[in-house]
Design a protein that fits this description.
single chain; 246 residues; alpha+beta; Hepatocyte Growth Factor; five-stranded antiparallel beta sheet; two-stranded antiparallel ribbon; 11 strands
């Protein structure tokens, strides 16, 4: 969410009515999340000036660990230097820390491609935004789940009940510090996650939603402490269920 919001902001800066705007003091502290969107808190160090040049050698974009040689345009300006400076700063301050983590395994190769392409400045802001929107579409639609074995058959659905909220085993990246609360596309994906965790014996897909509209599923080490709830369904692993426990 943070990276996508940042890319949308940089897309606007690259195509602003004033021209391509560069953030000269590009630091994480210069940004803040407001209603799920990343915003710049200080525009004092923003500029629309693009480096003048006579030849390509005049258009070196230097960073502490990397340098890039850009093209000198026919009007004597370094092509896209403001856009590319913003994008590489986004890569080194945000993408490298946030993109490799917490995505479903099937989507990680797509995020690695974005990471590598922006780190080498092979992508401009247009291509970067398009790549992010593709990953978001796959994530929201659940298309990344194709060709996976069915796991929900390993669970007994108990309708009309939910589990009591409380501290349970932890997992990463959980939305709750008390237990294992993860974003899923469906009960089928939740079943696959539960099967992959040795502690998990049951789960419930909650009414809570993430910023993408995906529900949150709560995974637990046992199906005990069930309470009536007409709108809920508890999924209990068949190997964990018994007449006595139910």
């Amino acid at each position: 969410q943070i990276c996508l919001s940042l890319v949308k902001l940089l897309f606007y800066l690259a195509h602003s009515p004033l021209g391509s705007i560069v953030l000269l003091d590009f630091q994480p502290r210069q940004f803040v999340m407001v209603d799920g969107n990343l915003k710049v808190t200080d525009m004092d160090d923003a500029s629309t000036e693009e480096l003048s040049c006579k030849e390509d050698n005049d258009c070196t974009l230097d960073f502490p660990t990397k340098s890039f040689l850009l093209k000198c345009s026919v009007v004597g300006k370094c092509e896209g230097i403001n856009e590319k400076k913003n994008l590489f700063n986004a890569y080194r301050y945000f993408f490298t820390y946030l993109l490799p983590h917490s995505a479903p395994p099937a989507l990680r190769p797509f995020l690695s491609d974005i990471l590598n392409a922006t780190g080498d400045l092979r992508y401009g802001i247009n291509e970067t935004l398009k790549a992010f929107e593709k990953v978001l579409h796959l994530y929201k639609s659940g298309l990344y789940l194709q060709k996976r074995p069915l796991h929900l058959k390993d669970y007994i659905p108990l309708k009309g009940f939910r589990t009591v909220e409380g501290e349970d085993y932890k997992c990463w990246p959980s939305y709750s510090h008390l237990g294992c609360l993860l974003s899923v596309h469906s009960a089928e994906e939740a079943a696959a996650i539960c099967n992959s965790q040795s502690q998990c014996q049951s789960f419930i897909v909650t009414q809570q939603r993430t910023w993408t509209g995906r529900p949150l599923a709560s995974f637990q080490s046992g199906p005990t402490d069930l309470i009536p709830d007409a709108n809920a369904v508890v999924y209990i692993k068949r190997s964990a269920s018994s007449g006595e426990r139910l």
